[in-house]
Specification:
- The protein is mainly beta.
- About 0% of the residues lie in helices and about 35% in strands.
- The structure holds zinc ion (ZN).
- The site of zinc ion has 8 residues, from loops.
């Protein structure tokens, strides 16, 4: 495990009302169409202290949100080929969130972190 998703370093928030131009942030899973957090590739590195800079954000859009529709196909997380990518989520909040399948993140086609979020743990 790298850390828990609820670790302040990640500044994780749920997203809602996602469109091609943006999203709202919220604390609760109900009504959220995704989750946004700082990429684990920078966790624990000296150049990214908890009160400092971050490498980049990761957005994971849900295939099965509770209480709202999934993000539209032209918005939310993207696969390497540019199409929409969606994850099956379970849990009740950041503390026990599970995403399936694994998350392969990276700007400009490179993979900087490929891991799992299971029961709120980032690995
Ligand atoms: Zn990264």
């Amino acid at each position: 495990m790298i850390a828990r998703l609820s670790d302040p370093w990640f500044a994780a928030v749920f997203t809602s009302g996602t469109t091609a131009t943006g999203y709202r942030k919220q604390d609760v899973l109900d009504g959220a169409d995704g989750v946004r957090f700082w990429c684990p590739c920078g966790y624990g590195k000296a150049q990214y202290p908890v009160d400092g800079a971050r490498p980049h954000a990761v957005i994971v859009s849900f295939a099965n949100p509770h209480g709202c529709a999934p993000a539209p196909p032209d918005a939310g997380s993207r696969s390497r080929d540019g199409g929409p990518s969606r994850w099956t989520m379970s849990g009740t909040g950041l503390h026990d969130l599970t995403l399936n399948p694994s998350v392969d993140a990276g700007p400009e086609g490179a993979s900087c972190w490929h891991g799992w979020i299971v029961n709120g743990e980032v690995s």
